[in-house]
Design goal:
There is one protein chain. About 40% of the residues lie in helices and about 20% in strands. The chain has about 425 residues and is α/β, with parallel strands linked by helices. The chain has two domains: about 150 residues, Aspartate Aminotransferase, domain 1; about 230 residues, Type I PLP-dependent aspartate aminotransferase-like (Major domain) (Aspartate Aminotransferase, domain 2, 3-Layer(aba) Sandwich). The radius of gyration is 22 Å and the shape is globular.
């Protein structure tokens, strides 16, 4: 190890001992854990503790930590070419776009670095479509209460939640929120300025609340009837998370535009906006861009993820494992009725609706050695790697059972 590497390691060790970050902007309420390595579904802290990771970086590490195939893809590409910008053709990106279009409804792909950027591109694509079709007045998107589409000014406006909008000035115009499941409200919201409907098949941040397949099919019908675009946010539900490559496949429909991110990079920052040829017709040179989006490193890793996750065999295994995990969670609910109210979700996007504050459940889980993620509606999300097996399911049940028992003891002492 060089002198500089030793210095960097020493600096990291000192930083890891602080109770709070000294110079980081205070936008996160961080758990006091510092991880130094991961392997599969496990994470290891700098002080030697081991945790079962059922958060996966919030549905990002789709194939777990340090997956050999992803490491190999990154290492091979890193020795050749990292970045050239989209001023030039990028072969790795063209190859990945070919794979995605072969597996989905899409004809065109734009690569980004994140889910929020993918949503921004999706919103712009929908607006530009109508402009190119001779209807520039059609720019508004109907969205749904409880949604979360990202943290840019446009995407917090699309979500419409006051807690994300507060303090950032007037909300960006162009979005009309309606309640989930209220078809009369949806139809009343459609007007001469409406461009389309933007919806998550499952509201992840909103509490793992599923949009029914019937409603998804209805959205497709109402869009077709009114000349609107159906825009899906599959940032959290996509890339195998529900047991299909994309969640809308369960409803037997196809969108016009779709935003993807999180699991597609397996931990490397990658996002994508997919669209049909018709929906993408307004996205001509100069209308949109990204400096880092679609760089060779990202494309190589995402290509390896799709090669693994995009097979029928892999997706069948996700469905099988999710059934096993849900059976164990049903046992957890039956064993701890004062803690667990309900189990919801699809595939390996699972929500535990709590009878105690979900923050307490997450904390109790950490004490028991399992990492989970909070969500709206007092829900705790379980988002394990898609390639978990029987050992991880058994460990998850035992650690969640331990967490519930600790919470019951706390309730009894109150």
């Amino acid at each position: 190890m060089s002198t500089m590497q030793k210095s960097d390691a020493a600096s990291f060790a000192v930083a890891a001992t602080r109770s709070t970050p000294a110079h980081m902007m205070g936008t996160y309420a961080r758990a006091d854990l510092v991880f130094e390595r991961g392997e599969g579904a496990w994470l290891y802290t700098v002080d030697g503790r081991k945790f079962l990771d059922f958060g996966s970086g919030i549905a990002v590490n789709s194939l777990g930590h340090a997956n050999p195939k992803l490491v190999a893809a990154l290492h091979e590409q890193a020795q050749k070419l990292w970045h050239v910008s989209n001023v030039y053709r990028i072969g790795e990106g063209e190859s990945l776009a070919d794979k995605l279009c072969a597996l989905t409804f899409a004809d065109r792909v734009f690569f980004t670095n994140s889910g929020a950027e993918a949503l921004e591109c999706a919103i712009k694509t929908a607006r530009k479509y109508h402009h190119a079709s001779g209807h520039p007045e059609r720019y508004r998107l109907i969205t749904f209460e409880g949604a979360f589409h990202g943290r840019t000014l446009a995407t917090i406006a699309a979500g419409g939640q006051a807690k994300y909008l507060e303090g950032f000035g007037p909300a960006m115009p162009g979005f009309d929120q309606v309640p989930v499941g209220d078809r009369k409200a949806l139809e009343a919201a459609i007007g001469p300025e409406t461009a389309g409907i933007l919806v998550e098949p499952i509201q992840g941040e909103g509490g793992v609340r599923s949009i029914s397949n019937e409603d998804l099919r209805y959205f497709r019908e109402i869009c077709d009837k009114n000349g609107l675009l159906l825009v899906l946010d599959e940032v959290q539900t996509g890339v195998g998370r529900t047991g299909k490559l994309f969640a809308h496949e369960w409803a037997g429909i196809a969108p016009d535009i779709m935003a993807v991110a999180k699991g597609i990079g397996g931990g490397f920052p990658v996002g994508a906006c997919l669209a049909t040829e018709e929906a993408a017709k307004g996205m001509v040179p100069g209308t949109h861009g990204s400096t880092y989006g679609g760089n060779p490193l990202a494309m190589a890793v995402a290509g390896a993820v799709i090669d693994e996750v995009g097979t029928p065999e892999f997706l069948a295994r996700v469905r099988e494992v999710s059934r096993d995990l849900n059976q164990r969670l049903a046992e957890l609910k039956a064993s701890h009725p004062d803690i667990v109210e309900d189990i919801r979700g699809s595939g390996l996007l699972i929500g535990i609706k709590c009878k105690v504050p979900n923050t307490e459940f997450v904390a109790a889980g950490r004490e028991a050695g399992i990492l989970t993620v909070g969500a709206g509606d007092n829900v705790v999300r379980l988002l394990p790697p898609l390639n978990i097996g029987e050992t991880e399911i058994r460990e998850a049940y035992e650690r969640l059972d331990k967490a519930c028992a600790a919470l019951e003891k706390k309730l009894g002492a109150a």
